[in-house]
Amino acid sequence: YRATLENGGGTATTDIVVKKAYEYGEAEAWMNERLERVCPNRVPKFMDAFEGPAEKKNQRPPLWLVWQFEGEGTLADAIQERNFPENLEEPFFGESLSGRSLEESRRRGLVIRRVLKEVLDAISDIHATGIVHRDVKPQNILLPSSKSKTSKLKFIDFGAAADLRIGINYLPKEFLLDPRYAPPEKYIMSTSTPKAPPTPVAAALSPVLWTLNRPDRFDMYSVGILLVQMCFPSLRRDNQLIAFNRQLEKLDYDILKWRDVIASKGSSFREGIDILDMDGGRGWDLLRLLINGTPSKRISASAAALHPFVSNNGLGVVPVLLEQVGDMFPEDIQRQSEWLFGKKGKEG
User: Fold this and answer.
1) Active-site residue among 121, 125, 135, 254?
2) What residues are paired with 18 via a beta bridge?
3) Radius of gyration over alpha carbons of the chain, in Å?
4) If we measure between CA atoms, which residue out of 278, 284, 240 comes closest to residue 258?
5) Which tens digit of pLDDT belongs to each residue from 181-190?
6) What residues have CB less than 8 Å from 99, skipping those under 6 apart?
7) Which pLDDT score is estimated for 30?
8) Is there a contact between 159 and 21 (Cβ–Cβ < 8 Å)?
9) Which of the residues 11, 73, 218, 236 has the least number of beta carbons within 10 Å of its own beta carbon?
10) Can you tell me the distance from the alpha carbon of 211 to that of 219, in angstroms, rounded to the nearest whole number?
11) Model's pTM, two decimal places?
12) Which residue, among 58, 64, 60, has the nearest Cα to 46 in the 3D structure?
């Protein structure tokens, strides 16, 4: 709920957002308080949490969480508008790109790449704290205000998040997910991983568990689905996104095989194909490193932020990326890279 908080004598007010949580409210308060301290630019300003009145007998009263109102809506709001991604040019570039001599696919690609870069930078900062969001989707991404040159894209709704530094909100055999964006494994770590030990021990062991299980890769699959949704207008509808996920499962989560399937289907997928095909197929190259059925074969947020599709640091297309992550899964990389080079060679 959006509300107004009166300050002091009531002459000054603050716009706030209030959320009533029946479950996982304590966990969400924990995540927000911690992120407010260690990376405050990646979450809205968290103000307080308090218990409300009991609503039913023998039931714990709900927890109310309060944030300062920020941003101009979510990425989901923007995606559902007909003029996406052009509607995000001013918030992310400070001006409309209509005055530049750009092809339509190039113009749209620039905006999508900028949005994705911000998403990756934010997730990278969150993962660096030991927190995995577990519910990355457009509805949980708060867009920066076009009136502010310093505001950044931020994440919201940490009710499903897990702080793996000390095991907050983590149970090995429990999963909380949105099936439209969640990866096939459902769990962020192996179900054989024990429950978190006492805090000092958990903090000491967490770097080892993070390296072995790579729980952050759970969020990276969701980022891949987000990228696909931004590029292909038809997949912005829930029924079409669900159908896409079913088709992807049948293709063993091989996004390059999916490209082959849709390439012959005409104009309905042309817009997305053109964006991902640009610059030697950089978009497809990044997607294959995000959307993969095996968590350990996905790229991290920090590495994805350096990928040529989103980065302007002048890296090459695939060869440089191979040097960065090829040791992790050389056979798959080699096979899919050959596909990319072969495809682009045939298409001229």
Assistant:
1) 135
2) 66
3) 21
4) 284
5) 999 987 765 5
6) none
7) 92
8) yes
9) 11
10) 15
11) 0.84
12) 64
Amino acid residing at 221: Y
pLDDT at 308: 94
| Nearest by Cα to 14 from 69, 92, 91 | 69
Cβ(15)–Cβ(70) below 8 Å: no
- The pLDDT of residue 322 is 41
User: CA–CA separation, 282 vs 275, rounded Å?
Assistant: 9
Q: How far apart are CA 31 and CA 34, in angstroms?
A: 5
Residue with tokens 């969400």: 28
State how far Cα 125 lies from the chain centre.
12
Per residue, the 3-state secondary structure of the chain, as one string, reads CEEEEEECCCCEEEEEEEEEECCCHHHHHHHHHHHHHHCHHHCCCEEEEEECCCCCCCCCCCEEEEEECCCCCEHHHHHCCCCCCHHHHHHHHCCCCCCCCCCHHHHHHHHHHHHHHHHHHHHHHHHHCCEECCCCCHHHEECCCCCCCCCCCEECCCCCCEECCCCECCCCCCCCCCCCCCCCCCCCCCCCCCCCCCHHHHHHHHHHHHHHHCCCHHHHHHHHHHHHHHHCHHHHCHHHHHHHHHHHHHCCCCHHHHHHHHHCCHHHHHHHHHHHHHHHHHHHHHHHHHCCCCHHHCCCHHHHCCCCCCCCCCCCCCHHHHHHHCCCCHHHHHHHHHHHHHHHHHCC
Residue 279 annotated as catalytic: no
Sites in the chain below the pLDDT cut of 70: 8-11, 147-150, 170-176, 188-213, 312-348
Q: Please name the amino acid found at residue 126.
A: I
Distance of CA 67 to the CA centre of its chain: 21
